[in-house]
Write a structure and sequence with these properties.
Rossmann fold, 273 residues, alpha/beta
Length: 273
């Protein structure tokens, strides 16, 4: 494993890039803070346009984990991993065992788990090389349904705050991203009687939400401009920004990650009216 340090400035404790060509592995682990405890944050598998984009994502996500863990009063700091892939076929065992070796170099200062593009089977492979991993098949398992449940309950709380009732029957909810969290959130919302509008860059995932929950499908970029009561981003994060906020036609926004902008926030709720 070849490891080199990335200069991310004084706001980050450590950012390393690891590579193991024989496994097709190139990954970044960013530790934002260990003030409250070991840095905790998942591993994202994604095809980035370049190294700079991957580094930016790792830095943004690790900082977000610091705030998430602190807000939840957890004894953990913030960290994150990203694994860069080219879109070609990969050997997941070689890739994630290499990632486990990279995680192990931190000797417990960083603990990983699932994120976008990874699952419990991948973490089981990581576990073959390090004990500093969560979300294993026979232990805590896939956290996505629990995350989705938390977002659903937050949406109910938002509805109570805005409309005086947590009843979502007939409310139009726009979901951006139909992966593990987005799919489970769609299930919860459908059972509550909400009307769904959904988008995803992966058409197969989008079709599943349309088929299983009667969602209205729109193109990925169109989701920001649909008229709805609530908008819930469940994709990569970082999509609520100066470009997208003016396009939103919703009353409430409830997202799965801390919003680190300068707009008013209450428990990841942005009041847009």
């Amino acid at each position: 494993m070849e490891v080199r340090e990335i200069d991310a400035g004084a706001d980050y404790e450590m950012v390393l890039l690891g590579s193991e060509p024989s496994a097709g592995y190139r990954g970044i682990i960013s530790i934002h803070s260990t003030v409250l405890g070991p840095a905790l944050g998942g591993t994202r598998l994604w095809s980035y346009s370049n190294d700079e984009a991957a580094i930016t994502d790792a830095l943004r996500l690790s900082r977000g984990m610091t705030y998430k863990n602190a807000l939840a009063s957890l004894p953990f700091g913030g960290g994150k991993s990203v694994i860069m892939v080219s879109g070609h076929a990969i050997d997941r065992e070689k890739l994630f065992r290499a990632h486990g070796r990279f995680v192990e170099t931190f000797k417990g200062r960083y603990i990983t788990a699932e994120d976008v593009g990874t699952g419990t089977a991948d973490m089981d492979l990581v576990h073959q090389e390090t004990n500093h991993v969560a979300g294993l098949t026979v232990r805590s398992g896939d956290p996505s349904p629990i995350t989705a449940r938390g977002v659903f309950r937050a949406i109910q709380a938002c509805a109570m705050f805005r409309w005086g009732s947590s009843d979502l029957s007939g409310r139009r909810v726009a979901i951006q991203g139909c992966g593990h969290v987005g799919y489970n959130l769609a299930r919860e919302l459908n059972e509550s009687g909400a009307r769904l509008i959904a988008s995803d860059i992966n058409h197969d995932r989008l079709k599943m939400v349309v088929r299983d929950f009667g969602a209205q499908a729109v193109e990925a970029d169109e989701i920001f401009g649909v008229t709805a009561d609530i908008f819930s981003p469940c994709g990569l994060g970082g999509i609520i920004n100066d470009d997208t906020i003016p396009r939103l036609k919703v009353s409430l926004l409830s997202e799965t990650q801390p919003f680190l902008g300068e707009h008013p926030v209450r428990n990841n709720l942005i009041d847009l009216q």
